[in-house]
Known about the structure:
This protein has about 375 residues and is an alpha/beta fold. The protein has 3 domains: about 20-215, 3-Layer(aba) Sandwich (Rossmann fold), CATH 3.40.50.300; about 225-295, Helicase, Ruva Protein, domain 3 (Orthogonal Bundle), CATH 1.10.8; about 300-370, Winged helix-like DNA-binding domain superfamily/Winged helix DNA-binding domain (Arc Repressor Mutant, subunit A). About 50% of the residues lie in helices and about 15% in strands. The chain contains 15 helices and 9 strands. It is globular and about 60 Å long. The two termini are about 35 Å apart.
Amino acid sequence: MRNPFPFSLRVITDPIGFCNRTPEIQKLISYAKSNTNAVIYSQRRFGKTSLVKQVQQRLEKADFVTIYIDLFGLSSADTIASRITRGVYKALYEQKALWQKALATIKSHRPVVRPDETGFSITAEAAGSKVFGADLLDQTLHELGEFLAQEKRKTNIVLDEFQEITEIKDPDVEGIMRSHIQQHQASYFFVGSRRRVLLEMFSQKRRPFFQSAVNFELNPLPHDEFVTFIAKRFEDAKKRCPPEAADAIAATVGDHPYYGQKLAFFCYERADKKVTQTDVQQAYADLLQAERPVFEAIVLGLAPRQIALLKAIAREPTKSILSMDYIRKHALKSIGGIQAATKRLNQLDLIEKEKDVWIVVDRVFARWLTQ
Ligand SMILES: Nc1ncnc2c1ncn2[C@@H]1O[C@H](COP(=O)(O)OP(=O)(O)OP(=O)(O)O)[C@@H](O)[C@H]1O
Ligand SMILES: [Mg+2]
């Protein structure tokens, strides 16, 4: 029997491996139907991408055109333009009439189709050599607008990792995107995991996207549903996970979808026929071990002062980072340094204030930091 839980971080596209999120799916479908734009945010790996894919699958069944655009790791305005076009190509390649229409309206790029292990891959190449950067982005979005205006069906467009556009130093990018998007006949979902950076784009008065979308926060999975889901997946794969053990799995990771699945994966590996509390405890050690490369990479990207503060907060969440006691106890040095580190860690979404207390956002990471 195969382990029913995904080990690697992949977006869930099949409904069987996907737990609940029914109210969220319904809400987002209703936004799409009313052409409402939404900002979908949560901490890392809460299932935003999986959720919007589920929503788009259902929208397609309701005769929507759906386009998914991934903006992770951008380097320039040109790459935004080509990512957008690639998303359009991917969505339409297998729908003949639409594909022709897209080719006819989007003249700034042309598709490059290559065979690969999944069948084929499509990328977009800029077609001319005269237009670059922000101008190319402007033209591409204009063409997309024309395409949308001609299309009678409703369209939903996901811009995943949307906050990444702020990494591009061109000051015009946000304004250009906003000016086109507000005229496009489509609903947009702006998705991201760097919550502060993303939300500031929509909540600061002087920013182009100010108040242009409703906020939609994705929470952990509902505990009882997650417990039932875990137990059922075990049962389907011929091992038993009693309610107390399934409860322990979900509770240990605070109903975090990704960590929950991964902890369940290790429990399945360890358990003989039936999962015990000892299996859950040992599987948690396996999980920490498995996540080590990810955590180490995060720490490597930080300055020594930031690491010191992060570890202090992981060990002892606090209301008063700047109190003399706290500084002394955790050997934190200067107040100015602590303030700068707090700001940066908060911006990176590694720490946050919960009911006035500073905590490390990711609780598994926090546990690892204290080892
Ligand atoms: N509803 C769900 N049911 C079961 N597992 C889920 C669910 N949502 C997410 N997961 C698990 O979490 C993992 C991460 O999901 P996904 O990539 O969609 O999250 P994300 O929020 O987009 O992450 P990131 O912040 O890295 O972009 C999935 O591979 C899956 O294992
Ligand atoms: Mg994602």
